[in-house]
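[job 0412] stage=complex_fold ligand=manganese (II) ion status=START
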Amino acid sequence: MTASVSLAAGSVAEFSGSLLAIALADDPKLSAGLIDLDRALGGTLQRSLDMRDFRGARDEAFALSGPAGGARRIVLIGMGKVNDRAGALRRAAAIAARQAMKLGFSDIGFYSGELGAEETEAATVGMIIGSWQYVDLKTPTPESERRAVLERATILTSSTNASRGGVANGEAIGAGHSLARTLAMMPGNICTPDFLAKTAEDIAARHQMKVTVLGRKEMEAEGMGSFLCVAQGTPQDPKLIILEYNGGKAGDKPVTLVGKGLCFDSGGISIKPAQSMEDMKYDMCGAAGVLGALEAIGRMKLPINVVGLIGSTTNMPSGTAVNPGDVVKSHLGKYIEIINTDAEGRLVLADVLSYARRFNPAVVIDAATLTGAIVVALGHTATGVFSGDDNLISETIAAGRRAGEPGWSMPLWDEYRDLIKSEVADIKNSGGRPAGAVSAAMFLKEFTEEYPWIHLDVAGTAYSDSDLGTMPKGPTGTPTGTFIEFVRGRLS
Ligand code: BES
Ligand code: MN
Ligand code: ZN
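[job 0412] stage=complex_fold status=DONE, emitting C-alpha coordinates
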Protein backbone atom coordinates (compact mmCIF):
# COMPACT_ATOMS: atom_id res chain seq x y z
CA MET A 1 0.00 0.00 0.00
CA THR A 2 1.19 3.51 -0.75
CA ALA A 3 0.08 6.89 0.56
CA SER A 4 -2.67 8.87 -1.16
CA VAL A 5 -1.79 12.49 -1.81
CA SER A 6 -3.89 15.65 -1.64
CA LEU A 7 -3.39 19.40 -1.58
CA ALA A 8 -4.20 21.95 1.10
CA ALA A 9 -3.67 25.69 1.11
CA GLY A 10 -3.27 27.72 4.27
CA SER A 11 -0.58 28.38 6.81
CA VAL A 12 1.89 25.69 7.88
CA ALA A 13 1.40 26.80 11.47
CA GLU A 14 -2.16 25.53 11.27
CA PHE A 15 -1.27 22.10 9.90
CA SER A 16 -2.32 19.79 12.72
CA GLY A 17 -1.34 16.36 11.37
CA SER A 18 1.31 14.04 12.77
CA LEU A 19 4.41 15.12 10.88
CA LEU A 20 5.10 18.38 9.09
CA ALA A 21 8.03 18.12 6.66
CA ILE A 22 9.60 21.35 5.44
CA ALA A 23 12.05 21.05 2.56
CA LEU A 24 14.70 23.79 2.48
CA ALA A 25 17.61 24.47 0.15
CA ASP A 26 21.22 24.97 1.14
CA ASP A 27 21.93 27.96 3.42
CA PRO A 28 18.25 28.28 4.35
CA LYS A 29 16.42 31.48 5.28
CA LEU A 30 13.02 31.64 6.91
CA SER A 31 10.64 32.51 4.11
CA ALA A 32 7.48 34.53 4.71
CA GLY A 33 5.44 31.30 4.73
CA LEU A 34 7.33 30.05 7.81
CA ILE A 35 7.18 33.18 9.99
CA ASP A 36 3.87 32.21 11.64
CA LEU A 37 5.16 28.74 12.42
CA ASP A 38 8.39 30.14 13.87
CA ARG A 39 6.37 32.46 16.07
CA ALA A 40 4.19 29.56 17.26
CA LEU A 41 7.39 27.69 18.09
CA GLY A 42 8.76 30.61 20.08
CA GLY A 43 11.49 31.29 17.50
CA THR A 44 13.06 27.80 17.50
CA LEU A 45 13.13 27.60 13.71
CA GLN A 46 15.05 30.82 13.32
CA ARG A 47 17.41 29.84 16.15
CA SER A 48 18.10 26.44 14.59
CA LEU A 49 19.13 28.17 11.38
CA ASP A 50 21.13 30.88 13.14
CA MET A 51 23.05 28.32 15.17
CA ARG A 52 23.58 26.23 12.03
CA ASP A 53 21.99 23.19 13.69
CA PHE A 54 20.30 22.69 10.35
CA ARG A 55 22.17 23.78 7.21
CA GLY A 56 19.96 22.51 4.41
CA ALA A 57 22.55 20.07 3.08
CA ARG A 58 21.21 17.46 0.68
CA ASP A 59 19.33 14.71 2.58
CA GLU A 60 19.94 16.38 5.96
CA ALA A 61 17.04 15.79 8.34
CA PHE A 62 16.46 17.79 11.54
CA ALA A 63 13.53 16.99 13.83
CA LEU A 64 11.82 19.22 16.36
CA SER A 65 8.56 19.17 18.30
CA GLY A 66 5.53 20.89 16.81
CA PRO A 67 3.72 23.92 18.24
CA ALA A 68 0.76 23.62 20.62
CA GLY A 69 -2.31 22.91 18.52
CA GLY A 70 -0.22 22.23 15.40
CA ALA A 71 1.78 19.36 13.96
CA ARG A 72 2.94 16.79 16.51
CA ARG A 73 6.42 16.71 15.05
CA ILE A 74 8.32 18.79 12.50
CA VAL A 75 11.18 17.64 10.33
CA LEU A 76 13.33 19.95 8.23
CA ILE A 77 14.68 18.23 5.12
CA GLY A 78 17.73 19.62 3.31
CA MET A 79 17.81 19.81 -0.49
CA GLY A 80 21.37 21.11 -0.89
CA LYS A 81 22.19 23.40 -3.81
CA VAL A 82 19.12 23.20 -6.00
CA ASN A 83 19.52 23.27 -9.78
CA ASP A 84 16.65 20.95 -10.64
CA ARG A 85 13.85 21.97 -8.26
CA ALA A 86 11.48 19.15 -9.25
CA GLY A 87 14.22 16.57 -8.73
CA ALA A 88 15.19 18.04 -5.36
CA LEU A 89 11.55 18.04 -4.23
CA ARG A 90 11.04 14.42 -5.31
CA ARG A 91 14.04 13.43 -3.26
CA ALA A 92 13.09 15.52 -0.20
CA ALA A 93 9.53 14.21 -0.26
CA ALA A 94 10.76 10.61 -0.42
CA ILE A 95 13.04 11.19 2.57
CA ALA A 96 10.21 12.89 4.45
CA ALA A 97 7.83 10.01 3.75
CA ARG A 98 10.41 7.51 4.97
CA GLN A 99 10.77 9.51 8.20
CA ALA A 100 7.01 9.29 8.68
CA MET A 101 7.14 5.54 8.09
CA LYS A 102 9.96 5.16 10.60
CA LEU A 103 8.08 7.19 13.21
CA GLY A 104 4.88 5.23 12.62
CA PHE A 105 2.85 8.26 11.54
CA SER A 106 -0.12 7.65 9.27
CA ASP A 107 -0.17 11.18 7.85
CA ILE A 108 2.29 13.83 6.75
CA GLY A 109 2.24 17.41 5.50
CA PHE A 110 4.89 18.59 3.05
CA TYR A 111 5.82 22.23 2.57
CA SER A 112 8.40 23.86 0.35
CA GLY A 113 6.88 27.20 -0.61
CA GLU A 114 4.57 27.59 -3.58
CA LEU A 115 4.86 24.72 -6.05
CA GLY A 116 4.06 24.67 -9.77
CA ALA A 117 2.39 21.71 -11.49
CA GLU A 118 5.64 19.92 -12.28
CA GLU A 119 6.95 20.47 -8.76
CA THR A 120 3.72 19.25 -7.20
CA GLU A 121 3.94 16.16 -9.38
CA ALA A 122 7.53 15.54 -8.27
CA ALA A 123 6.66 15.93 -4.57
CA THR A 124 3.75 13.52 -5.05
CA VAL A 125 5.97 10.92 -6.72
CA GLY A 126 8.49 11.36 -3.89
CA MET A 127 5.84 10.77 -1.23
CA ILE A 128 4.78 7.54 -2.94
CA ILE A 129 8.35 6.35 -3.50
CA GLY A 130 9.18 7.01 0.16
CA SER A 131 6.13 5.22 1.52
CA TRP A 132 6.43 2.10 -0.63
CA GLN A 133 7.12 -1.13 1.17
CA TYR A 134 6.74 -4.82 0.45
CA VAL A 135 5.49 -6.67 3.53
CA ASP A 136 3.31 -9.35 1.93
CA LEU A 137 5.66 -12.12 3.01
CA LYS A 138 6.19 -10.98 6.59
CA THR A 139 3.85 -12.13 9.35
CA PRO A 140 2.21 -8.95 10.66
CA THR A 141 3.29 -7.79 14.13
CA PRO A 142 0.49 -8.00 16.71
CA GLU A 143 -1.96 -5.10 16.56
CA SER A 144 -0.84 -3.73 19.95
CA GLU A 145 2.78 -3.31 18.85
CA ARG A 146 2.17 -2.39 15.24
CA ARG A 147 3.21 1.05 14.01
CA ALA A 148 0.92 2.86 11.62
CA VAL A 149 1.91 3.08 7.97
CA LEU A 150 1.81 6.32 6.05
CA GLU A 151 -1.62 6.60 4.43
CA ARG A 152 -2.19 10.28 3.72
CA ALA A 153 0.19 12.92 2.43
CA THR A 154 -0.87 16.54 2.14
CA ILE A 155 1.14 18.91 0.00
CA LEU A 156 0.79 22.37 1.45
CA THR A 157 0.46 24.65 -1.56
CA SER A 158 -2.41 26.51 -3.16
CA SER A 159 -4.79 24.23 -4.99
CA THR A 160 -5.05 25.32 -8.60
CA ASN A 161 -6.09 23.31 -11.64
CA ALA A 162 -2.41 22.94 -12.48
CA SER A 163 -1.36 21.70 -9.05
CA ARG A 164 -4.31 19.30 -8.89
CA GLY A 165 -3.18 17.95 -12.27
CA GLY A 166 0.30 17.60 -10.77
CA VAL A 167 -1.05 15.43 -7.95
CA ALA A 168 -3.06 13.26 -10.37
CA ASN A 169 -0.06 12.71 -12.65
CA GLY A 170 2.21 12.16 -9.66
CA GLU A 171 -0.13 9.50 -8.28
CA ALA A 172 -0.24 7.77 -11.68
CA ILE A 173 3.54 7.79 -11.96
CA GLY A 174 3.90 6.74 -8.34
CA ALA A 175 1.55 3.81 -8.95
CA GLY A 176 3.73 2.76 -11.90
CA HIS A 177 6.85 2.91 -9.73
CA SER A 178 5.21 0.97 -6.90
CA LEU A 179 3.98 -1.73 -9.25
CA ALA A 180 7.43 -2.12 -10.81
CA ARG A 181 9.15 -2.27 -7.42
CA THR A 182 6.66 -4.76 -6.02
CA LEU A 183 7.05 -7.08 -9.02
CA ALA A 184 10.82 -6.82 -8.72
CA MET A 185 10.81 -7.49 -4.99
CA MET A 186 8.58 -10.56 -5.31
CA PRO A 187 10.59 -13.78 -5.19
CA GLY A 188 10.97 -15.82 -8.35
CA ASN A 189 8.72 -18.59 -7.07
CA ILE A 190 5.83 -16.09 -6.85
CA CYS A 191 6.62 -13.64 -9.64
CA THR A 192 6.77 -16.21 -12.43
CA PRO A 193 6.38 -15.63 -16.19
CA ASP A 194 2.77 -16.65 -15.65
CA PHE A 195 2.35 -14.04 -12.93
CA LEU A 196 3.82 -11.30 -15.14
CA ALA A 197 1.32 -12.28 -17.85
CA LYS A 198 -1.55 -12.11 -15.34
CA THR A 199 -0.32 -8.70 -14.18
CA ALA A 200 -0.33 -7.50 -17.80
CA GLU A 201 -3.88 -8.81 -18.19
CA ASP A 202 -4.94 -6.85 -15.09
CA ILE A 203 -3.38 -3.66 -16.46
CA ALA A 204 -5.09 -4.22 -19.81
CA ALA A 205 -8.46 -4.71 -18.12
CA ARG A 206 -8.05 -1.59 -15.97
CA HIS A 207 -7.08 0.68 -18.86
CA GLN A 208 -8.75 -0.72 -21.97
CA MET A 209 -5.58 -2.12 -23.49
CA LYS A 210 -5.24 -5.16 -25.71
CA VAL A 211 -3.20 -7.98 -24.24
CA THR A 212 -1.79 -11.02 -26.04
CA VAL A 213 0.31 -13.75 -24.44
CA LEU A 214 2.34 -16.24 -26.44
CA GLY A 215 3.48 -19.42 -24.69
CA ARG A 216 6.02 -22.03 -25.70
CA LYS A 217 3.76 -23.51 -28.39
CA GLU A 218 2.95 -20.20 -30.01
CA MET A 219 6.60 -19.16 -29.95
CA GLU A 220 7.58 -22.44 -31.58
CA ALA A 221 5.12 -21.65 -34.37
CA GLU A 222 6.74 -18.20 -34.68
CA GLY A 223 10.20 -19.76 -35.01
CA MET A 224 11.63 -18.09 -31.91
CA GLY A 225 14.59 -20.43 -31.53
CA SER A 226 16.68 -17.87 -29.68
CA PHE A 227 14.14 -17.04 -26.95
CA LEU A 228 13.09 -20.70 -26.68
CA CYS A 229 16.60 -22.08 -26.21
CA VAL A 230 16.80 -20.09 -22.94
CA ALA A 231 13.48 -21.61 -21.82
CA GLN A 232 14.60 -25.14 -22.76
CA GLY A 233 15.77 -26.01 -19.24
CA THR A 234 12.75 -24.75 -17.31
CA PRO A 235 9.46 -26.55 -16.78
CA GLN A 236 7.63 -23.21 -16.58
CA ASP A 237 5.92 -21.96 -19.71
CA PRO A 238 7.83 -18.98 -21.12
CA LYS A 239 5.73 -15.94 -22.01
CA LEU A 240 5.96 -13.29 -24.68
CA ILE A 241 3.60 -10.63 -23.35
CA ILE A 242 2.19 -7.94 -25.63
CA LEU A 243 0.28 -4.92 -24.31
CA GLU A 244 -1.21 -2.47 -26.81
CA TYR A 245 -2.39 0.92 -25.61
CA ASN A 246 -4.15 3.02 -28.24
CA GLY A 247 -4.45 6.48 -26.72
CA GLY A 248 -3.31 8.17 -29.95
CA LYS A 249 -4.71 8.42 -33.45
CA ALA A 250 -5.42 5.18 -35.27
CA GLY A 251 -2.50 4.47 -37.58
CA ASP A 252 0.02 6.56 -35.60
CA LYS A 253 3.19 4.51 -35.16
CA PRO A 254 3.53 3.35 -31.54
CA VAL A 255 6.38 3.99 -29.14
CA THR A 256 7.39 0.44 -28.29
CA LEU A 257 8.76 -0.45 -24.84
CA VAL A 258 10.58 -3.77 -24.49
CA GLY A 259 11.63 -5.40 -21.22
CA LYS A 260 13.81 -8.34 -20.22
CA GLY A 261 11.72 -10.50 -17.90
CA LEU A 262 13.96 -13.23 -16.48
CA CYS A 263 12.10 -14.19 -13.30
CA PHE A 264 15.26 -15.96 -12.21
CA ASP A 265 18.62 -16.25 -13.91
CA SER A 266 20.76 -19.08 -12.51
CA GLY A 267 23.06 -18.81 -15.52
CA GLY A 268 21.87 -22.18 -16.87
CA ILE A 269 24.58 -24.73 -17.70
CA SER A 270 27.14 -21.87 -17.43
CA ILE A 271 25.90 -21.60 -13.86
CA LYS A 272 26.59 -18.55 -11.71
CA PRO A 273 28.47 -18.69 -8.40
CA ALA A 274 26.19 -19.00 -5.33
CA GLN A 275 27.29 -15.63 -3.92
CA SER A 276 24.36 -13.16 -4.41
CA MET A 277 22.61 -15.51 -6.82
CA GLU A 278 19.37 -14.64 -5.02
CA ASP A 279 19.63 -11.16 -6.58
CA MET A 280 18.88 -12.74 -9.93
CA LYS A 281 15.19 -12.61 -9.04
CA TYR A 282 15.69 -8.96 -10.08
CA ASP A 283 16.51 -10.02 -13.63
CA MET A 284 12.98 -9.00 -14.65
CA CYS A 285 13.34 -5.30 -13.79
CA GLY A 286 13.16 -4.28 -17.46
CA ALA A 287 9.82 -6.08 -17.72
CA ALA A 288 8.64 -4.53 -14.44
CA GLY A 289 9.49 -1.12 -15.92
CA VAL A 290 7.36 -1.81 -19.00
CA LEU A 291 4.40 -2.85 -16.84
CA GLY A 292 4.87 0.07 -14.44
CA ALA A 293 5.08 2.54 -17.32
CA LEU A 294 1.95 1.16 -18.97
CA GLU A 295 0.07 1.34 -15.67
CA ALA A 296 1.06 5.02 -15.36
CA ILE A 297 0.35 5.79 -19.04
CA GLY A 298 -3.07 4.13 -18.74
CA ARG A 299 -3.91 6.09 -15.60
CA MET A 300 -2.85 9.39 -17.20
CA LYS A 301 -4.72 8.46 -20.39
CA LEU A 302 -1.85 9.84 -22.49
CA PRO A 303 -2.91 10.62 -26.08
CA ILE A 304 -0.35 8.39 -27.79
CA ASN A 305 -0.04 4.82 -29.02
CA VAL A 306 2.28 2.60 -26.98
CA VAL A 307 3.13 -1.08 -27.29
CA GLY A 308 4.76 -2.97 -24.42
CA LEU A 309 6.63 -6.21 -25.11
CA ILE A 310 8.02 -8.51 -22.45
CA GLY A 311 10.10 -11.64 -22.89
CA SER A 312 9.74 -13.71 -19.74
CA THR A 313 11.17 -17.05 -18.62
CA THR A 314 13.67 -18.48 -16.15
CA ASN A 315 17.19 -19.58 -17.04
CA MET A 316 17.82 -23.02 -15.50
CA PRO A 317 20.35 -25.81 -15.85
CA SER A 318 18.85 -29.22 -16.61
CA GLY A 319 19.25 -32.22 -18.90
CA THR A 320 17.14 -30.42 -21.47
CA ALA A 321 18.90 -27.06 -21.13
CA VAL A 322 20.79 -25.46 -24.02
CA ASN A 323 24.53 -26.14 -23.96
CA PRO A 324 27.58 -24.03 -24.81
CA GLY A 325 28.48 -24.81 -28.41
CA ASP A 326 24.86 -25.28 -29.50
CA VAL A 327 23.61 -23.23 -32.44
CA VAL A 328 20.04 -21.93 -32.62
CA LYS A 329 18.06 -20.16 -35.35
CA SER A 330 16.51 -16.87 -34.29
CA HIS A 331 13.12 -15.43 -35.23
CA LEU A 332 14.86 -13.06 -37.64
CA GLY A 333 16.62 -16.02 -39.29
CA LYS A 334 20.16 -15.35 -38.05
CA TYR A 335 22.02 -18.33 -36.57
CA ILE A 336 23.45 -17.86 -33.09
CA GLU A 337 26.22 -19.86 -31.47
CA ILE A 338 25.71 -20.22 -27.72
CA ILE A 339 29.05 -19.56 -26.01
CA ASN A 340 27.74 -18.87 -22.55
CA THR A 341 24.24 -19.84 -21.42
CA ASP A 342 24.42 -17.04 -18.84
CA ALA A 343 24.28 -14.48 -21.68
CA GLU A 344 20.57 -15.33 -21.95
CA GLY A 345 18.96 -11.89 -21.82
CA ARG A 346 20.20 -10.98 -25.29
CA LEU A 347 18.88 -14.31 -26.64
CA VAL A 348 15.40 -13.57 -25.29
CA LEU A 349 15.46 -9.95 -26.44
CA ALA A 350 16.74 -10.85 -29.93
CA ASP A 351 13.45 -12.58 -30.76
CA VAL A 352 11.28 -10.02 -28.97
CA LEU A 353 13.03 -7.18 -30.86
CA SER A 354 12.56 -9.07 -34.10
CA TYR A 355 8.87 -9.59 -33.27
CA ALA A 356 8.54 -5.82 -32.58
CA ARG A 357 8.83 -5.12 -36.33
CA ARG A 358 5.19 -6.07 -36.89
CA PHE A 359 3.96 -3.10 -34.84
CA ASN A 360 5.64 -0.69 -37.25
CA PRO A 361 7.17 1.16 -34.30
CA ALA A 362 8.03 4.87 -34.32
CA VAL A 363 10.86 3.90 -31.98
CA VAL A 364 11.77 0.88 -29.85
CA ILE A 365 13.34 1.36 -26.42
CA ASP A 366 14.38 -1.74 -24.53
CA ALA A 367 15.51 -2.02 -20.92
CA ALA A 368 17.35 -5.00 -19.52
CA THR A 369 19.44 -6.01 -16.53
CA LEU A 370 21.74 -7.24 -19.25
CA THR A 371 25.36 -7.27 -18.11
CA GLY A 372 27.55 -7.22 -15.03
CA ALA A 373 29.96 -5.27 -17.23
CA ILE A 374 27.75 -2.14 -17.18
CA VAL A 375 28.05 -2.18 -13.38
CA VAL A 376 31.84 -2.17 -13.76
CA ALA A 377 31.63 0.71 -16.27
CA LEU A 378 29.04 2.99 -14.63
CA GLY A 379 28.47 1.59 -11.13
CA HIS A 380 25.03 1.94 -9.57
CA THR A 381 24.64 5.58 -10.59
CA ALA A 382 23.92 5.70 -14.31
CA THR A 383 22.04 3.51 -16.73
CA GLY A 384 23.99 2.65 -19.90
CA VAL A 385 22.31 4.20 -22.95
CA PHE A 386 23.11 2.69 -26.36
CA SER A 387 21.91 3.80 -29.77
CA GLY A 388 23.27 4.42 -33.23
CA ASP A 389 21.34 7.71 -33.26
CA ASP A 390 22.78 10.58 -31.19
CA ASN A 391 19.45 12.42 -31.12
CA LEU A 392 17.77 9.39 -29.59
CA ILE A 393 20.53 9.18 -27.00
CA SER A 394 19.97 12.83 -26.01
CA GLU A 395 16.20 12.34 -25.95
CA THR A 396 16.55 9.29 -23.68
CA ILE A 397 19.10 10.84 -21.32
CA ALA A 398 16.87 13.93 -21.00
CA ALA A 399 13.86 11.71 -20.22
CA GLY A 400 15.89 9.87 -17.58
CA ARG A 401 17.04 13.14 -16.04
CA ARG A 402 13.44 14.38 -15.73
CA ALA A 403 12.56 11.11 -14.01
CA GLY A 404 15.51 11.19 -11.61
CA GLU A 405 17.04 8.18 -13.38
CA PRO A 406 20.36 9.35 -14.82
CA GLY A 407 21.68 7.68 -17.96
CA TRP A 408 24.97 7.91 -19.81
CA SER A 409 25.87 7.30 -23.41
CA MET A 410 27.91 4.22 -24.34
CA PRO A 411 29.51 3.46 -27.72
CA LEU A 412 27.81 1.23 -30.25
CA TRP A 413 30.36 1.35 -33.04
CA ASP A 414 30.92 -1.12 -35.88
CA GLU A 415 34.47 -1.55 -34.56
CA TYR A 416 32.98 -3.63 -31.74
CA ARG A 417 31.21 -5.98 -34.14
CA ASP A 418 34.25 -8.32 -34.26
CA LEU A 419 33.64 -9.26 -30.62
CA ILE A 420 30.56 -11.30 -31.54
CA LYS A 421 31.80 -12.95 -34.77
CA SER A 422 31.33 -16.73 -34.69
CA GLU A 423 33.37 -19.46 -36.39
CA VAL A 424 30.34 -21.65 -36.96
CA ALA A 425 27.25 -19.41 -37.03
CA ASP A 426 26.34 -15.80 -37.98
CA ILE A 427 27.06 -14.45 -34.51
CA LYS A 428 27.83 -15.72 -31.01
CA ASN A 429 26.08 -14.74 -27.80
CA SER A 430 29.16 -13.74 -25.80
CA GLY A 431 32.11 -11.55 -26.65
CA GLY A 432 33.96 -12.36 -23.43
CA ARG A 433 35.22 -9.82 -20.90
CA PRO A 434 36.34 -6.76 -22.93
CA ALA A 435 33.57 -4.14 -23.34
CA GLY A 436 31.01 -6.68 -22.12
CA ALA A 437 28.11 -4.22 -22.04
CA VAL A 438 28.94 -2.99 -25.55
CA SER A 439 29.19 -6.46 -27.09
CA ALA A 440 25.82 -7.32 -25.55
CA ALA A 441 24.32 -4.17 -27.10
CA MET A 442 26.02 -4.97 -30.44
CA PHE A 443 24.31 -8.35 -30.32
CA LEU A 444 20.88 -6.73 -29.85
CA LYS A 445 21.64 -4.27 -32.66
CA GLU A 446 21.70 -7.23 -35.08
CA PHE A 447 17.94 -7.60 -34.56
CA THR A 448 16.88 -3.95 -34.66
CA GLU A 449 17.94 -2.68 -38.08
CA GLU A 450 14.38 -1.93 -39.29
CA TYR A 451 13.40 0.82 -36.82
CA PRO A 452 14.95 3.52 -34.61
CA TRP A 453 16.16 1.84 -31.43
CA ILE A 454 17.64 2.59 -28.01
CA HIS A 455 18.89 0.05 -25.48
CA LEU A 456 19.12 0.68 -21.74
CA ASP A 457 21.36 -1.56 -19.64
CA VAL A 458 19.91 -1.18 -16.14
CA ALA A 459 21.85 -3.99 -14.41
CA GLY A 460 23.49 -1.42 -12.09
CA THR A 461 20.51 0.88 -11.54
CA ALA A 462 17.37 -1.29 -11.30
CA TYR A 463 18.14 -2.42 -7.78
CA SER A 464 20.45 -1.35 -5.03
CA ASP A 465 22.31 -3.43 -2.48
CA SER A 466 22.50 -0.50 -0.07
CA ASP A 467 20.03 1.98 1.42
CA LEU A 468 19.79 5.04 -0.85
CA GLY A 469 18.23 7.44 1.66
CA THR A 470 15.16 7.88 -0.51
CA MET A 471 14.55 4.13 -0.55
CA PRO A 472 15.73 1.00 1.22
CA LYS A 473 17.97 -1.54 -0.49
CA GLY A 474 16.15 -3.44 -3.20
CA PRO A 475 14.38 -2.39 -6.39
CA THR A 476 14.64 1.30 -7.33
CA GLY A 477 11.85 1.47 -9.91
CA THR A 478 14.33 2.15 -12.74
CA PRO A 479 13.59 2.09 -15.72
CA THR A 480 9.89 2.90 -15.08
CA GLY A 481 10.39 6.67 -14.87
CA THR A 482 12.62 6.81 -17.95
CA PHE A 483 10.01 4.91 -19.98
CA ILE A 484 7.20 7.21 -18.78
CA GLU A 485 9.15 10.41 -19.48
CA PHE A 486 10.29 9.14 -22.86
CA VAL A 487 6.67 8.53 -23.86
CA ARG A 488 5.51 11.87 -22.43
CA GLY A 489 8.28 13.58 -24.34
CA ARG A 490 6.77 12.21 -27.55
CA LEU A 491 3.31 13.73 -27.01
CA SER A 492 2.61 16.07 -29.89
N1 BES B 1 21.36 -10.96 -15.63
C1 BES B 1 22.75 -11.00 -15.89
C2 BES B 1 23.43 -9.63 -15.77
C3 BES B 1 23.49 -9.03 -14.39
C4 BES B 1 24.66 -9.16 -13.65
C5 BES B 1 22.45 -8.29 -13.88
C6 BES B 1 24.73 -8.55 -12.40
C7 BES B 1 22.53 -7.71 -12.65
C8 BES B 1 23.67 -7.83 -11.90
C9 BES B 1 23.01 -11.50 -17.32
O1 BES B 1 22.10 -12.43 -17.79
C10 BES B 1 24.34 -12.15 -17.33
O2 BES B 1 24.48 -13.13 -16.67
N2 BES B 1 25.29 -11.59 -18.07
C11 BES B 1 26.60 -12.11 -18.14
C12 BES B 1 27.04 -12.07 -19.59
C13 BES B 1 28.32 -12.82 -19.85
C14 BES B 1 28.11 -14.31 -19.61
C15 BES B 1 28.76 -12.58 -21.28
C16 BES B 1 27.50 -11.26 -17.28
O3 BES B 1 27.29 -10.05 -17.20
O4 BES B 1 28.37 -11.80 -16.61
MN1 MN C 1 22.63 -14.39 -17.23
ZN1 ZN D 1 20.19 -12.36 -16.94
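The two ends are 34 Å apart (CA to CA).
[job 0412] exit 0
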